[in-house]
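S.,

Sequence below, as promised.
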Amino acid sequence: MTESKRIKQFRLSIVRDIPKFPNDKATKQALEAKSLSALLIDYMNWASRLVAPRPRSVTIEPTATNDPRWKNLSAEITAFLEKVRKGEDLTPHLSLDAHTLGYTPAASKKEAGVDRWADKDFLLTVMGYHHFHLGLTIEVAGHATRTNEVLFASVTREHFDVVALFDHSVFEVDHAPTTIMNSERQRLWNIFDQRTMRGVPPGSVVIPAMVTTSGHALHFVTMANYYARIVREIDPKLDDKDYVAGLYRDSGMPVPAKPKLRWHLHYLDIGLLDETARVLLVLKHGPN
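The prediction came back faster than expected:
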């Protein structure tokens, strides 16, 4: 199937945006060789680690407030949650890995001993929890001061549910069969299990997270394929002036004299960007 200039530009923009490691020609070429669907899976795997800036309501679980550290960190927590409510950019509070560990070819190799999680956030993929540093100072590099304690939260477009506080031992994993899980990681799994089973009738079968053999969350694989289908179906219509004018009218916006649209991803939203009119026509909203 012939690829339009718009779709090619879209694919290459995704390749450009995904943080690569190693950040070299071979990694770039590996991404460029992928289909749009496959490339969108890699993009969503990375972009899901970010949180789009928009106001959200905040709820706080007792598993957070009952922690003695909650009171000790009250100033930091209050300041951070105020940013959440106002819709400020939370990127400075995210793990630095979200800026660098976007995609590595090593995680996709088809051989024994491959670390599928090298370019993935395991806890986010399996549990759906983001974690945030609570430093009050923004460093010169643009990130908040790193803190030993991190705040875990379940984040949607409208809501920010604070789950608990943990120290960094919660990320420690030892795959040896005789290893006992450390207390922080065990507490996280207990909280996750309790939240997952909340309100579920006895005897029910629950699958809290579906993960593909590649290590990607199944719902993002499904979403990537859906986004690719949107692009394939709509792109040929973008040369039809009447169709393009209808997109603007359906959005309640005036039709520019010479609209020039290109495919664009804003965090996990997909749409058509008119740079001249400074307008993004969102076709599908992402989960956060």
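The first strand starts at residue 57 and ends at 60.

Coffee later?
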